[in-house]
Structures are given as structure tokens and as C-alpha cells.
């Protein structure tokens, strides 16, 4: 098990940037695939980005590709989400998640550790 705490959310104007951080505590952070999901009011939780435990391969939802970048620092047991060119439709609670599964993809049920979420609000 790993405990996850997100930070870095806030209010930003459209076109602006934010950097989310997720600090992990527990064992073997480097063995987990890490991901970011988001959930807007009235909508289901959706995949945003993930970074593999092996090779640090990254994958993105089409809606954020080219604007968001996920990165990890195993020495600091942390994962980050750099969000640029933010749009009002990016407004949501953003969750950090960790998966111990082999090659997980973007499905909520594949991730067995979740943070409490951090609010991101993009104004027009």
C-alpha cells in the first residue's frame, strides 16, 4: 500500500499553467505505475495521464495531449502533472493514483491507491 497526498491545485485563468504534485509514502514507490485522473461535477472520473514504473513511459488522454506533462521522481517518491494552456473544461478535482498491476491502462479499477484530490478551476 502507498499513501498519496496531492497539492498544487487552485484557480487560474484560461491559458495559464499549474503544476500538481503528489507525494507518496509507503513502500516501493518505484514499483508502481502512477497516474492522474480528474472528475468534474456530475461526470465520471476520467483518465488524464500515466507514467509506467518501468522505463517511465508516458501516456495521455487525447484531451490533454500536448498541453499536460506527467513526470516522476522516484528518489522523492513523487509524481507531477505540469498543466499548460489550461481551458475551462479542465476544471475538475484532480486525483493522483497508484497501481501495482502489470501494465495498467486508464481504467479506474486498475488503481488501488488514491489521494484525496485537489481542485483545479480554470476561469474564462
Structural class: mainly beta
Spans of at least 5 consecutive residues with low confidence: none
Secondary-structure element series? EEEEEEEEEEE
SS strand fraction: over 45%
* Tally of DSSP helical segments: 0
* Straight-line distance between termini: 39 Å
Number of strands: 11
Characterize the main sheet: 7 strands, mixed
If you compute it from the alpha carbons, what radius of gyration comes out, rounded to the nearest whole angstrom? Answer: 13 Å
State the helical fraction.
Answer: under 10%
Mean pLDDT: 96
Tell me, what's the shape?
Answer: globular
Note down, in words, how this protein is organized:
The chain is an all-beta fold and 124 residues long. It is 0% helix and 51% strand. The protein has strands at residues 2-7, 10-13, 18-26, 33-39, 46-51, 58-60, 68-73, 78-83, 92-99, 113-114, 118-123. The strands form two sheets. Strands 2, 4, 5, 6, 9, 10 and 11 form a seven-stranded mixed sheet that branches. The chain starts with a strand and ends with a strand. The mean pLDDT is 96.
Keywords:
124 residues; mainly beta; 7-stranded mixed sheet; 4-stranded antiparallel sheet; 0% helix; 51% strand
Task: Note the topology.
Layout: E1 2-7, E2 10-13, E3 18-26, E4 33-39, E5 46-51, E6 58-60, E7 68-73, E8 78-83, E9 92-99, E10 113-114, E11 118-123
Summary of the model, kept short:
With 124 residues, this protein is mostly beta strands.
Amino acid at each position: 500500500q502507498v499513501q498519496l497526498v496531492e497539492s498544487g491545485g487552485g484557480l487560474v485563468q484560461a491559458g495559464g499553467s499549474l503544476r500538481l504534485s503528489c507525494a507518496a509514502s509507503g513502500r516501493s514507490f518505484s514499483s508502481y505505475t502512477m497516474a492522474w485522473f480528474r472528475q468534474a461535477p456530475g461526470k465520471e472520473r476520467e483518465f488524464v495521464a500515466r507514467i509506467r514504473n518501468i522505463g517511465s513511459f508516458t501516456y495521455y488522454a487525447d484531451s490533454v495531449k500536448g498541453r499536460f506533462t506527467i513526470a516522476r521522481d522516484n528518489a522523492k517518491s513523487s509524481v507531477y502533472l505540469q498543466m499548460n494552456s489550461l481551458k475551462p473544461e479542465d476544471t475538475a478535482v484532480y486525483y493522483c493514483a497508484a497501481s501495482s498491476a502489470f501494465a495498467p491502462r486508464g481504467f479506474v479499477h486498475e488503481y488501488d491507491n488514491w489521494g484525496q484530490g485537489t481542485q483545479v478551476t480554470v476561469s474564462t
